[in-house]
Amino acid sequence: MSVFGGIGFTAPWLLLALLALPILWLILRAVPPAPIRRRFPGVALLLGLADDESTSDRTPWWLLLLRMFAVAAIIVGLAGPVLNPQAETEQSSGPLLMVLDGSWAGASGWDRQLAAVDAQLTRAGRAERTVGILTLTDPQVPTFQSADAWRSRLAGLNPAPWQPAPEEITRATEIMADLTAFDTMWFSDGLDYPGRDDLLATLQAKGAVEVHQSANNVIGIAPAVYQDGAIDLTLRRAAPGPERDAVVQAHGRDPAGNARVLATANATFEAGATEASTSLSLPAEMRARLTSFDIAGQRSAGARTLVDDGLRRREVALIGGRGAQEGLQLLSPLHYIEQALAPNADLIDGTLSDVLPANPDVIVLADVATLSPAEAEPLQEWIDAGGMLIRFAGPRIAASDVSRIDEDPLMPVRLRAGGRSVGGAMSWGEPKALAPFRNGSPFFGLPVPDDVTVSAQVVAQPDPTLADRVIASLSDGTPLVTRKPVGQGQIVLFHVTATAEWSTLPLSGLFVQMMERLAVSSGASTPEAGSLEGTTWTPLRVMDGFGTLSDAGNLPGVAGPDLISAPAGPALPPGIYGSEERRLARNVLTAETTLTPARWPSDVPLRGLALPPEQPLAGALLSLAILLLVADVLASLALSGLLLRRSTGTLALVLGLGSPQMGDAQETDPESFAIRSASEVTLAHVLTGNPDVDEVARAGLTGLSDTLYFRTTVEPALPTGVDLEQDELAFFPILYWPVTPDQPQPSTEAYGKLNDYLRSGGLILFDTRDADIASYGAASPNGRKLQELAAPLDIPPLEPLPGDHVLTRTFYLLQDYPGRYTSRDVWVEAAPPDAERIEGMPFRNLNDGVTPVVIGGNDWAAAWAVRRDGAPLLPIGRGYAGERQRELAYRFGVNLVMHVLTGNYKSDQVHVPALLDRLGQ
């Protein structure tokens, strides 16, 4: 490529043709040869006549200049001009190897990286260099071929959800050693990894190495940890930098099964810090629906951490020392525990031998002193495997010899005999209050009520390890709750009873919070590799480099220890793995992962990915030449007088093409609007001022109109939005009114039009779009707004849609009326008091009117809404059940429109035999 004045030319020799332009100028300006003179007598008749039109014997200078510019544009365009050409001085003619890290760290900027690779392939193609591409996450022997061949295959390159492993780097080094000399362009993702320096040395031995790396700091998120009643989230970045804010989104399923963002949390990287933390406090029901935590704006597998069984509802087995006495429920040793755990955990009752095979997360023993060897041994194994045993003291433990001399394996501490109580040998005099929970305790941060006191307890014997095992104590320092880790699990002892006999703790809200933090947070940590020995885990869903989950297909199972300790790779892709009824998430980042930025030697050129794009100008210049030649033709026609003779037809064609647009503009005229609306059945929706809601309403009525067109004899026009303040309502048989909390209140004049519309037979479908969570009361913003909007309207008494209402059979026989939600509460005009069912008739004898309003909250427009290509706009439910729900929503809409158009026509007795026959089917 040759560069002249900042513009490069791929075929500069074609510019020599510009030298011929002066010769072309002279040729075009040449005067034609003089005509041969012949005498003709009839010419005498023409003498004295004046010629109003004269033709020049020379081409005008401005037309010549126009033609010169056209020819010059063609010549320069064919020479291949390029704006911002990349310098070619450092390019050699040998093979070029492009090395890509190809890991998740480059996924967020993958498009920019591929654009940089494409630009370098363009340069290599101009230099006629053969190119090979090597991806370090899956190294294969590179094939050196033309740059154009690789450019067509770039779209198939995608990042892997792992970093290059040492084994992959070793294989890549071995491949490089067998190749002959070549230059290298290394596209780095910005992270360091083992073996990178050795590979760089091997590549430098083969030729020049140039590194291209994005300046963006790599950011990732570690697995979520549930502790102390909150979900702790840790974000990491590769290099220190200025203060930076990040938003973490909690993704999951809403009650309808639709994927959505359930909660968000903000995290801040302090200046110079590489780690940021945040936490989320969510109820157990919402935690059970979480699927992942994502960093907003980061599209990579490292910026997503998947959620497994660690945050689901815990299974807690309750075993009491004595059975509950009939009629004395408050004296049951398990009563207060059940009340504390029932909202957040699944409770299991039974004997110890019954509950252990169910493998619960927590086992609670309330005043159970001794266990038989047949019970103690499997219980010990269960704790070693990660279970939590919570024990409560009581008269039985106080009177027993358990953990007196030697520490019992199922007790966290040794105990003194006899306990401690008011009035005894070790009397306190007054009940003792609780001390504030210290840092490091699972109860840290919980407020201690002043009315929680302890009057009796079992006392721990002083031991060297006692201080480390105390997680709650009384105001005088006496241990109240102790804990001991055992294997992967732990044992916790409350030194008081689970009833109100020894303390007021079970009567307080603090007891609920303490049990929730202990029992519900158990099992939230990742198991040790050794605890999964002998197990095989099957991949269920796996992530790609962008963090997108997909079905695992037929991928082989993974050994339990490898799932925890082995690095992610082709044999262990990040994702969700299952074994029997348990699920574990293998994420890109683990709790121990650190992100280290890539450092390069000073002798290696380091460039960014943002190169000034080369802009080919050939197309623009050739297009300009065509326009100039068209202008030359028009100018020539004008000079010859032929252009005016063709102008009439051209003007008519232009006006003809523009006429539909003029018709559309006239639609804004009120008279045209009335004619168009009244000429066909038109469904309308009230404009709320919220663009998103109005667009869904328009798309919903479009989908309903299409359904009516294909299934019934009704052929609606395109739906329209109406402004209650300006538009006439009488043309529309039905108004769909989505309720939003912030839509403006109509004026008095608008309410006058609305009441006239209702009295003249119109129908308004009010949709609060909130699944009727407030039962049309004031408990929700949409419900309160509906009350405000409907108060000035002349609405008759309403009742829930009865099963024999004509709406249930105007076209389809319906029992449910779902939209995006499935609430069955739909309100219509109440039937007259004298409406009775006649013998032999399946329906009541109702009047012939149409209910003026229908009120619901199922978000019908969202279920009806379609895109311009006819596909559904919004997801409804999941799988076949969701599509069935959408079909029922369409049927309800059809029934609603047919009810408006036909009234209670379906209540006529003439239709009873047909309806009875269909109901019988």
Key traits:
about 900 residues, alpha/beta, seven-stranded mixed β-sheet, five-stranded parallel β-sheet, 23 helices, 40 strands
Write structural notes for this entry.
- By secondary structure, the protein is α/β, with parallel strands linked by helices.
- 35% of the residues are buried.
- Strands 17-16-18-19-26-25-24 form a 7-stranded mixed sheet.
- It is flat.
- Helix 19 (748-759) links the parallel strand 36 and strand 37.
- The longest helix is centred in the C-terminal third of the chain and has 24 residues, at 643-666.
- Mean pLDDT is 82; it is low at 323-328 and 648-667.
- The protein is 29% helix and 20% strand.
Main sheet strand line-up: 17-16-18-19-26-25-24
Q: Give the overall average pLDDT.
A: 82
Helix and strand content put the structural class at alpha/beta
Query: DSSP strand (E) fraction?
Result: 15-25%
Radius of gyration: 41 Å
Distance between the termini: 80 Å
Number of strands: 40
Helix content: 25-40%
Shape: flat
What profile does the largest beta sheet have?
Answer: 7 strands, mixed
Topology:
Blueprint: E1 2-4, E2 7-9, H1 21-29, H2 61-78, E3 81-83, E4 96-100, H3 110-126, E5 131-135, H4 147-151, H5 166-177, E6 183-188, H6 196-206, E7 209-213, E8 219-221, E9 225-227, E10 230-237, E11 244-253, E12 259-269, E13 275-280, H7 284-287, E14 290-295, E15 304-306, E16 314-320, H8 335-341, E17 345-349, H9 352-355, E18 362-366, H10 373-384, E19 388-392, H11 395-399, E20 420-421, E21 432-433, E22 453-454, E23 456-457, H12 466-469, E24 470-473, E25 479-486, E26 489-494, H13 509-520, E27 536-543, E28 549-551, E29 558-559, H14 560-565, E30 575-579, E31 582-586, E32 606-607, E33 615-616, H15 618-640, H16 643-666, H17 670-679, E34 684-686, H18 691-711, E35 720-722, E36 734-738, H19 748-759, E37 763-767, H20 781-790, E38 798-800, E39 827-829, E40 853-856, H21 860-864, H22 879-902, H23 912-920
Parallel strand pairs: 4-5, 4-6, 6-7, 7-32, 16-17, 16-18, 18-19, 19-26, 34-35, 34-36, 36-37, 37-40
Antiparallel strand pairs: 1-2, 2-3, 3-33, 8-10, 9-10, 10-13, 11-12, 11-14, 14-15, 20-23, 21-22, 24-25, 25-26, 27-28, 27-29, 27-30, 30-31, 38-39
Helix pairs in contact: 1-2, 2-15, 5-6, 8-13
